[in-house]
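Researcher: Next entry: LLM class flavin-dependent oxidoreductase (Propioniciclava soli).
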Amino acid sequence: MKNIGFLSFGHWSPSPHSAARSASDVLLQSIDLAVAAEEIGADGAYFRVHHFARQLASPFPLLAAIGAKTSRIEIGTGVIDMRYENPLYMAEDAGAADLIAGGRLQLGVSRGSPEQVVDGYSYFGHTPEDGDHARMAREHTQVLLDVLKGEGFAEPNPRPMFPNPPGLLRIEPHSPGLRDRIWWGAGSRATAEWAAEQGMNLMSSTLLTEDTGVPFHELQAEQIQRFRDAWAAAGHTRTPRVSVSRSIFPIVNETDRAYFGLESRSQDQVGRLEGGLARFGKTYADEPDRLAAALAQDTAIAAADTLLLTVPNQLGVDYCAHVIESLLTHVAPELGWR
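Model: Predicted structure:
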């Protein structure tokens, strides 16, 4: 059994070929897709966060709106670039959205991906010491994790406008349990181990920022195992969660074939990203029986408890819901995921 959700990058384009032609379109359609996904039995609605781009950027209004219109589905991000974040303000927004959703928030955070602009985080008021982007993201994340514990740390005003509870004050609103629902988007085996040490869940996508020459799914499966080993060594008491993302398209009609039929020949790719080697996972697209056989060989999916399907949001809500339902109906039962 697996938790199966979708991951949307939230693209919009004024092109007449796009079903999402404005920011308003993509926001409202994201809400509709989350509602539809819950109705057809999916387990999660996750959204990518990019700044300075025609994509989803500020996640918490969207997550709160989805939380208010759904009752069961997990709601999350994959991922928020922590270089841009004020972690205390983020804790307030996240706490409010999680309370609206009844404790269903699953926040993926990370150092982020290549940007649309040069040093975009500096426009948000954040500059890394010695140019170390990764360290700044980790420092912001550590502050977030600390304040989500709900412990007081701020000295109260002796003459406040409203009465305070005794002792040091914490960030409000506080949502109990949210600290255990923070995921780190790890691009390497080493960052997965760091995430485990911090007590965060692991979120791994279709990109790894390293390459050892083995197939993508094998390298990712090794990353997952290293995460779990580091988690055990750290002595955490709860069981961690692990998600992987995949582009998976069951071909069950001619529209599917027109869009994704050629992807049945997809293979892993190796390239360079920010000066280093990176390995990109392939797209899975085929008729359900052959698709199930191929997915059964993916060792990283087998190792994870959560699978996030990347959806082509510019093809519209109905088509994306069709892709999710096709996997849940025609593929997942064959693999024992349902």
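Model: Note for the record: The domain at 3-138+173-335 is CATH 3.20.20.30 (TIM Barrel).
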